Amino acid sequence: MASGKFWRRLLRPAISHALLSSIVAVAGASAQEPRNTVDDATGLAALEAFLADVHSLAADFKQEIWTADHRLVQTETGTLALARPNRFRWTYREPTELTVVANGTKLWIYDADLAQVTVAPFDDTLATSPAMLLSGDRSVREGFTVAESYDFEGLDWIKLTPKAGGADFTSVRIGFDGTAPKRLELVDGLNHVTRITLDNLVVNPELDDALFEFEVPAGVDVSGEG
User: Fold this and answer.
1) Is 142 helix (H, G, I), strand (E, B) or coil?
2) Computed over its alpha carbons, how large is the radius of gyration of the chain?
3) Do 54 and 204 contact (CB within 8 A), yes or no?
4) 197/143: higher pLDDT
5) Which of 38, 92, 117, 120 gives 98 a disulfide partner, CB atoms 3.0 to 4.6 angstroms apart?
6) Predicted local distance difference test score (pLDDT) of residue 138
7) Which of 161, 163, 135 lies closest to 149 in space, CA to CA?
8) Is the pLDDT of residue 186 over 70?
């Protein structure tokens, strides 16, 4: 399933450590020339404002997987909630059921169709993943370089590239509406694009701590480090 593969690829360093072998408009958006390119300081300011002012977030999302030749191969929808530092919950509802939860100490990936939970330690290897750009603390930006920033389709965009070698992605683009992230686009080495669009977004809601814990359902197989 695409969502499971996405998260396992996105978070592979953490899962490998646990003995196991991820957020635009149209498919051509990544290939289109950006409108109104601006200096890097503008995009960096949008990212820094988000990291400084947004402490929690809740939204509906649509995740799309596109091939390099602009073919849509998967569309999934669900909800997300995050709270800094290092806590998030992504729940995929259609067409597959997948739940990804982090409480700052552990990471759970629950695949309902496979009746399997993967558990991994939440450690420093996860800090440089794109997922942590949304839920990590301000120091998470130290793992990325600002490649460019621009205005496009009414959003302030910033393109980041990972500083660490061997990453599974070559760039991350985030489109902001003020301090609120509205779109996220990840590009891998084969120019496959994972893009996530956020809707019904609520900034700085009060979130129950229980959202960021996961209770393994009865009868479900567990692998990894519990």
Assistant:
1) helix
2) 17
3) yes
4) 197
5) 92
6) 63
7) 161
8) yes
Question: Contacts for 168-175 with beta carbons within 8 Å, 24 or more apart?
Answer: 168/9, 168/10, 168/12, 169/10, 169/130, 171/147, 172/130, 172/133, 172/144, 173/24, 173/30, 174/23, 174/47, 174/133, 175/24
CB contact at 8 A, 82 and 61: no
CB-facing half-sphere around the CA of 167: CA atoms within 13 A: 23
Q: Which sign does the torsion angle of CA 49, 50, 56, 59 carry?
A: positive
> Taking a C-beta distance cutoff of 8 angstroms, is the pair 96, 223 a contact?
no
Q: What is the pLDDT of residue 11?
A: 47
pLDDT at 33 over 50: no
Which residue segments constitute the domains of the chain, with CATH numbers given? 2-25+36-212 (2.50.20.10)
* CB atoms near residue 195 (< 10 Å): 23
What is the bridge-based pairing of β-strands 144-152 and 37-38?
A: antiparallel
Tokens read off for 74: 């998967």
Q: Per-residue pLDDT tens for 58-73? A: 999 998 989 989 899 8
